[in-house]
# Entry
Amino acid sequence: MTSRIPGFYKLSIDERLSKVKEFAGLTDEEVTLLREMGNLDDKTADLLIENVVGSMAYPFAVATNFMINGKEYLVPMVIEESSVVAAASNAARVMRRDGGIKSIVSEPIMIGQIQLVNVDSPYQAKMIILEHKDEILSLANEQDPILVKLGGGAKDIEVRLLDSRIGPMIVTHLLVDVRDAMGANAVNSMCEKVAPYIEELTGGRVYLRIISNLADRRIVRSSVKVYKEDIGGEEVVDGIIAAYAFAESDPYRASTHNKGIMNGVIAVALATGQDHRALEAGAHTYAARFGWYSPLSVWEKDEDGNLVGYLEMPMAVGIIGGCTRVHPIARIGLKILGVKTAKELAEIMGAVGLAQNFAALRALATVGIQKGHMKLHARNIAAMAGAKGELIDKVAEEMIREGKITFDRAKEILEKLGS
Ligand code: MEV
# Structure
């Protein structure tokens, strides 16, 4: 089945949903859940967080046209900002050649930190901890036999010495393969388990025992070639490269550049129940890993004048545990993607981030982003004024031509068109 569905945006919500149902093999019950827009029941809401007094729904959409590693995907996106889903779908349409966007993800290694202070001889303490690596790892792994059975678990340690304002600090990193989980629970429990042993070994005092959101051992790398003739020629390619060069030279621009990437990444994260704050934290820290803030993607030109994009960022996502299993809509999001592993989800999210970034840079380097926004805005106003089917586009186009996008004008145009 193909994710290339021309005119998807022109269909009614029910028509779109029936296409998604067919694509992803959704059940009638899942379709009903998605359709009941305020879809979190009291029991589930109360289970997820404390002091619940209600729930709040966001629009759930799918981006079409995605081909990633040669596979077709309809990509679920939850976001409140107009144009993002349309932009992702448009970008994905010109990224389908040669098997589409390529994504590769590393092994799912997360880092847990154990902070040790009050040690007289930090280097000696570091050596003692390293000498007891095997004991530390087996203690950590006793904490999560199921993860170990699945091939994951604590695999290695690193010991770092920090010179802090309160004196030397010895930070032990526990490197944990978390398999299909985001990993915070597993890693935090392991850190808490081994902390007393580290105190015992060194005579120091442990304070923090917690995962690091700088997931720089869990990296997705996505790349794509966009043929110049598919995007309006080499001038557009040059414009996109100039936009990238701007972001590379200026943190004010890099921030917005990366925001565009996160528009895609976080929309998929929300639709699949991920810890999106962890993703944001990891992304921005990674962007600053050289000591200055830089763009997470790179755009360059190949020898034939085509555009080549590359994105690299941490991607700590899971398909088991937490919200991914409890939230009924997150489960449907994962089902629409058809992902079987957290690695595949990470590969998709890297690809969506890259496509979203391309869409923004292309618009910015050519017509600007307001044109697209205005088109969507005009369509919304036309629909609110009562336009249906093809009339939505007709009324919207007329309003854009006149430069007057208002509810009253939409009504007048509708009357003029005889409906
Ligand atoms: C808006 O949500 C995102 C953009 O600002 C991204 C960018 O400027 O690259 C359009």
In short: The first strand starts at residue 60 and ends at 68. The two ends are 38 Å apart (CA to CA). The chain has three domains: 8-104+218-367, 109-211, 371-418. The chain has a mean pLDDT of 95.
